From TrEMBL:
The lineage of its organism: Bacteria, Bacillati, Actinomycetota, Actinomycetes, Micrococcales. Belongs to the acetyltransferase family. RimJ subfamily. Transmembrane segments: none annotated. Keywords: Acyltransferase, Transferase. InterPro entries: Acyl_CoA_acyltransferase, GNAT_dom, N-acetyltransferase. The keyword Acyltransferase applies. PROSITE patterns: GNAT. Residues 16-190 form the N-acetyltransferase domain. This is GNAT family protein. It comes from the Bacteria.
């Protein structure tokens, strides 16, 4: 159950960390998104309302921070320690959203990773780290991830981590200017092996 000490929190695995998104990240976050504009465009959420736009960075952080305090979201940035860097740079973002308590104990997870850091295991490590935290510390029962069928890289992430395919959701989310189909994957706490999702993933990498 939600309570003090569960948020804000920083989660770590080796050189990788998930830490809370904050207003002070604006310049770095905006620069990273700018460099990844074309890389992320096919999967980018859009506003279906005519003339509607997306929130500004300040509005996004304010909304996500409020949701975190209410216990309905966990807004993280992904950072990676790098040699000679004064502080770990942001290499992506991961958000656990739509947290439902009571008899459901479920949540939805979304993420993106910088193109220059793709293929290094950052996404599966981050997803495993966040999922273990939600199961072990928050007491959630189910984690869901929805992915465009064309997004081969993200489909490999859920395959590597053992998320179970639950079916196609036609026109599920408004993406890049149009309603887009998504494939739904989920994992319940009973499906996680002893040692956690992260332990199994790291062991599979040798």
């Amino acid at each position: 159950m939600w309570g003090s000490g569960l948020w804000p929190v920083t989660l770590r695995s080796g050189d990788l960390a998930l830490r809370p998104l904050r207003q002070a990240d604006r310049s770095e976050w905006m620069a990273l998104r700018g460099r990844n504009k074309e890389w992320l465009a096919p999967w980018e959420a859009s506003n279906p309302q005519p003339e509607g736009g997306l929130p500004t960075f300040r509005e996004m952080v304010r909304s996500l921070t409020h949701q975190a305090r209410e216990g309905s979201a966990l807004p993280f940035v992904i950072t990676l320690d790098e040699p000679r860097a004064r502080r770990a740079p942001i290499v992506g973002q991961l958000t656990v959203s739509s947290i439902v308590w009571g008899s459901a104990l479920t949540a939805t997870l979304g993420y993106w990773v910088d193109k220059g850091h793709a293929g290094r295991g950052i996404a599966p490590t981050s997803v495993a780290l966040a999922t273990d935290y939600c199961f072990d510390e928050l007491g959630l029962h189910r984690m869901e991830i929805n992915i465009r069928p064309e997004n081969a890289a993200s489909l490999r992430v859920v395959e590597k981590l053992g998320f179970r395919y639950e079916g196609l959701r036609p026109r599920f989310l408004h993406i890049n200017g149009a309603w887009a189909d998504h494939e739904s994957f989920a994992l319940t706490v009973e499906e996680v092996p002893p040692g956690g999702l992260l332990g199994r993933w790291l062991a599979s990498r040798g």
